[in-house]
Amino acid sequence: MSQSDYDEYGCGHCLARRQRQEAAPINVPAALTGAEQSNAANTEAARLIHDATARAARVERDAQDAAERRVRDATAQAARIVADAHTEAQRVSAEAAQDRERARQERAQAVQERVQAVQEQSRVLADARALAEQIVQAALAGNGNVQHVSAASPRASVSIFFHGEIAAATDRFSAASLVGAGGFGKVYMVLPRRLAGLNMLLAVKKLDVDSMQGQAEFLQEVQVLGACRHENVLPLIGFSVDRGVTEEEDGVCLVTSFMKGGSLQDRLMLDEAARRRLNKMPGAPPAGWAPLTWQQRVSVLLDALKGLDYLHTPDPVTHKPKILHRDIKPDNILIDAEGNARLGDLGLARQQRPAAHNVTTMTSIAGTNGFMDEHYQGSGRFDAAADCYSMGISILVTLTGLPAFEPSQGKLDGRCEVEDDDEIVALAETQAQWPREVAIAVHKVGMALVKRNRERRMTVRQARDRLQSLTDEYMPPAPPEHESVERECAICLSAPRYVRFGECGHSALCQGCLDPFMRRPQPVCPVCRSPVTRGGLVESDDVANQNTFVHPLHP
Asked: Cα dist. 186→225, 234, 265, 403 in Å?
């Protein structure tokens, strides 16, 4: 190291020496004169000033180096953050562009499918109108009677009406005839003998002809209602497919028997709107509608389960496939004047093809909030277990009188998820006066149908059998009827009764509904539920004019 590079202020030895010198008192030799002493003090002071100045310069230099280092680090970190943000922005922009392109392709595909569906449905409707016109012209060329057009098979007939006939019978679809409205159309009431001379109360469901969804519902409901015959499924009496006199009257119409007891939903809730609809029913109680008793509720639920079990059960003899209802709810469980229930509104029903492995995949989710299975909502795959879920919620609504869904409370099955018997009884609606054992049993059936583990859910048939056991145990059979009134078939509600069951003495069926009914695995009388056999049948045109009940012919 050269002399010029030596830093006495940076040397540790020199620093220690200076500290010792600073700490020691300044000893001025006594022999020095006053001038010499002053010069020595000045020299020492200059040295001390020089040391302090060097120390301050060193501290300043260190601080400047640290500041420069921090600035460099901050600048580098900011550059990294900007680069990362730029990269993330590019990634998000690319993903957004991909999402937009995918959405555009999906919209284009949906539009194409919708156009194809419209074209197909328009073609089917055109074929149906052409067929209807041919049938009508043939009937007019024969004897002018177009009330009932029957196939060669013994099935009950389905009528084809002119649209003008239905418009006249409903007073041009007046508000006075309106009794309800649904997602695909409005429902009107037709008094007896106002439509083609039919001596029965009828319901007309008018669908918007310009609604693609309404056309699809019409075609589906015509097929399901027209082909299915069961005492707990609302039968199709007839339909119209031609144009009305005015654009306001345009639309396709379904004609069914009118259920005088209203819907289970209205009978459960009995709010102002429900009472207004129920009070339009012929024969409405003068004192108003009373809440359903527990016996009536169990009977209605049992009928609904029987109807759903019929839809779910394929029939190889008649080639009836397994049918999924897809919109089970109290609004679609209809009650007649005697308290018997039937499943209605089958516009969303779908046939399950054998190759579907018990699953039908839907391109759009349809149903009612609170009654739809979460698995179906998430996957679009509908099966019998999804119908079971809807039926289970309907049972819980009937038991509790609570809505299926409330924004503040969530879905009803969550509120009913209790195991303590006292809590179950507390859930049951008090106005129905549920017996403790019955309320607990009905709750268990409802919860078994809505289990989250879909593979462990109770089947519709198991639920039907459980409620049937409850009915047999807690509800004694009603006394036999003794009236002498002509009554229509208990299944199709249109043809006169032709058959009497010798085992119980009841007449219930027409000739067209007899064969499909007797092909059931274990047929029972629709009136009293007693087992019946083909050997005990009494068939005669005179049955329609006899008492509905006579003493059993084959005890």
From this structure: 18, 17, 17, 23
410 and 320 in one domain?
yes
Give the per-residue pLDDT at 513.
87
The one-character DSSP state at 143 is: T
Can you read off the two tokens belonging to residue 231?
């005492």
Residue 78 lies in a domain: no
Domain assignment of residue 506, given as a range = 480-555
90: Cβ contacts below 8 Å, ≥ 6 apart: none
pLDDT of residue 9: 56
Show Cβ contacts of residue 415 under 8 Å, excluding neighbours closer than 6 positions: 402, 409, 427
What does the pLDDT average to over 273-281?
90
Is residue 311 within 8 A of residue 349, CB to CB? The reply is: yes
pLDDT higher than 60, residue 3? no
Q: Rounded to 5 degrees, what are φ and ψ at 214?
A: -65, -40
Catalytic (active-site) positions: 327
The alpha carbon torsion through 188, 194, 195, 198 (nearest 10 deg) reads: 110
| 219 token code pair | 């075609």
Q: Judge whether residue 143 has pLDDT over 50.
A: no
Residue 105 included in any domain: no
Please say whether the beta carbons of 302 and 468 come within 8 A: yes
* Distance between CA atoms of residues 59 and 66, nearest Å: 11
Helices H, strands E: what count in the chain?
14, 17
Token pair recorded at residue 9:
């202020």
Taking Cα atoms as reference points, which of 276, 310, 278 lies closest to residue 292?
278
What is the spatial distance between Cα 25 and Cα 41, in angstroms, rounded to a whole number? 12
Q: Do 289 and 374 have their domain in common?
A: yes
Say if CB 203 and CB 190 are below 8 A apart.
yes
